[in-house]
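>> Question from a student workshop board

For tomorrow's exercise we were told to take the sequence and the ligand below, predict the bound structure, and bring the output to class. My setup keeps failing. Could a helper post the expected result so I can at least see what it should look like? The ligand is NAI.
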Amino acid sequence: MSDLPGIVITGVSGRMGQMLVQTVRASDKARLVGAVERAGHDWVGRDLGACMGGPELGITVTDDPLEAFAKAQAVIDFTAPAATLEFAKLAAQARCVHVIGTTGFEPAQLEALKPAARHAVLIRAGNMSLGVNLLTQLTKKVAQALDADWDIEVIEAHHNKKVDAPSGTALMLGQAAAEGRGIALEENTESGRDGITGARKPGAIGFSAIRGGDIVGEHDVLFAGMGERIILRHVATDRAIFARGALKAALWGQTQKPGAYDMIDVLGL
Ligand SMILES: NC(=O)C1=CN([C@@H]2O[C@H](COP(=O)(O)OP(=O)(O)OC[C@H]3O[C@@H](n4cnc5c(N)ncnc54)[C@H](O)[C@@H]3O)[C@@H](O)[C@H]2O)C=CC1
Ligand SMILES: O=C(O)C1=N[C@H](C(=O)O)C[C@H](O)C1
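>> Workshop helper replied:
Here is what the output should look like for this input. Compare the format with yours to find the bug.
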């Protein structure tokens, strides 16, 4: 019996779920102990390895998250907001570190996540990659240095299956820009322009979303001034960057006190 932290992956058949299975199995710092899918999914009740088209792994995909969490030290969760809210309660009950990559939360849903962090370590980020988390720091710094005559626009592109916009990453970058500028993002957002919109609201932070093909994730923060522009860019070409970040967070969380954390905490940026 290994004493490496045991990890459960939720939404295991998803794009990120399958990438996480590969990442955790390749790691010598953690072991995969459970796999969760939604009730009714055709992977439930079958061996995970066989579902993924490979040799059997001895892990049966379950739709009973609490049963899976009870055997684990961490849950890595890239699913959907309603599912993540449910998993947060159960992970706290099982005292598991809950790493949340899910995006698309409404403000009330984010509020509803808070009680879980009183009992367990909860680490949430709209983007788990080192590059994007560094970019948030750079964005804050540039926004701090420029006055409100510089228009800030966050432009993102993702694959055609993505269901939420702006992306979680775009919101992190917008938040960083707002903090740098010393304004509240909620009161200074401009998005979804269409038709006769009128001139751009001075000082606003704009968001635009492109959806197409298999784009993994691309984000530009554009600072547009009079006669010059600065563009900060991150391009993701492989989902492994998110899975590596999530696993790092799950391991880091093992030694932390209950509370709400993000990837800036994990990476020590
Ligand atoms: N924070 C980050 O670094 C990243 C975040 N994401 C986010 O992760 C989420 C998932 O993305 P993808 O893997 O591309 O989506 P996907 O649609 O391929 O996978 C989601 C999976 O969750 C499962 N699921 C939904 N409800 C469930 C429930 N109640 N119980 C168990 N499983 C359930 C679905 O059946 C599906 O297999 C999205 O919100 C996306 O924006 C994606 C990549 C990186
Ligand atoms: O849905 C995705 O694919 C991604 N979602 C995250 C987001 O909303 O920013 C992270 C990454 O860009 C991929």
